[in-house]
Amino acid sequence: MASVTTIASHPTSAFISTPEFSRLSQSLHSSLRQRRCSRKSVCGTISASIDLKPPPYALNALEPHMSKETLEYHWGKHHRGYVNNLNKQIEGTELHEKSLESIILASYNKGDILPAFNNAAQVWNHEFFWESMKPGGGGKPSRELLELIIRDFGSFEALIQEFKLAAATHFGSGWTWLVCKCCVCSTKTHDQTI
Fold first, then answer.
1. What distances in angstroms separate CA 132 from CA 44, 80, 115, 155, 193, one per listed residue?
2. Which of 9, 48, 63, 149 would be a feasible disulfide site paired with 96, CB 3.0-4.6 Å?
3. Which H, E and C letters describe 125-141, residue by residue?
4. Taking each helix axis from N to C terminus, what angle separates 100-108 and 116-131, rounded to the nearest 10 degrees?
5. 194: which residues sit within 8 A by CB, 6+ positions away?
6. In degrees to the nearest 10, what's the CA dihedral of 131, 83, 179, 64?
């Protein structure tokens, strides 16, 4: 079974996978698989809730690469909006007891996308994005990943150049990913590589 290593870029930042990132990613995937929607009782009714997870570091911890104000806006308003909208969309539906990944898969509906998909996918993308960065992180990956990058792109610098080009020339909003076998792909707004 091939392992998947991902590098993602959002218009405000980019990150590079390292062994520490790989452990973070595995931890995130594990916690997300285990996480279920919580239920809250409001005025005698049961409502669904996907929680807005905070980044795993202080909001100013990524400075000077990403400012506290950028994180406050992007996480505190933008990401929060996706969470709030998703909760409104799944309340009272069969999706309200499902995990975030199950909501994404069910609402993708084999390409006939249902309304909750856009918000659920953006919640997952943002959680993955926050978990993929850390204070003092970044730089050249080591060992196996670096060997694969050199094999497929010729050099780490060539990957960075192609990655930045893919992110900069992506029409509209979206994400740029480096996925297994070291190929760069872009996805529209909410699409992802789950």
1. 39, 18, 27, 22, 15
2. 48
3. HHHHHHHCCCCCCCCCC
4. 140
5. 101, 104, 105, 121, 124
6. -40
Domain that holds residue 162: 139-193
Q: b or e along 41-74 (b: 16 or more beta carbons within 10 Å of the residue's beta carbon)?
A: eeeeeebbbbebbebeeebeebeeebeeeebeeb
Omega cis (within 30) before 64: yes
CB atoms within 10 A of CB 140: 12
Residues in the chain: 194
Q: How many domains does the chain have?
A: 2
Instruction: Indicate the pairing of strand 174-179 with strand 45-49.
Output: unpaired
What confidence tens digit (pLDDT) does each residue in 42-92 have? 343 444 579 999 999 999 999 999 999 999 999 999 999 999 999 999 999
Q: Which of 110, 136, 162 is the last residue of a domain?
A: 136
